[in-house]
Amino acid sequence: MADLVEYYNTIRNTIRLHSAIGYITSKDKLKGRAEAVFAAREAHRARRQQSWRSGRRRQCQHGISEKLSAGYRCTMV
Predict the structure, then answer these.
(1) Rounded to whole angstroms, how far apart are CA atoms 53 and 20?
(2) 33-71: per-residue pLDDT in tens?
(3) pTM of whole model > 0.85?
(4) Chain-centre distance of CA 10, in angstroms?
(5) Bridge-partner residues for 76, per DSSP?
(6) Phi and psi torsions of 70, nearest 5°
């Protein structure tokens, strides 16, 4: 039984993301890594937004209704 409790506490504190503290682990919060995690998330979000705005997204190069039935595929631009 003690092994099960230890396993549960390990999962809860090191793996599970807690919504009340910003979807980080308890261990990250206690070790003071919360701001670093939030900064990394914001940097990733900014890169994705820039990528989206620059046009690097999935676009179909051909007319949709006519070409899809003929076997054309959408590609990354």
Answers:
(1) 32
(2) 999 999 999 999 999 888 787 766 555 555 555 555 555
(3) no
(4) 23
(5) 58
(6) -90, 0
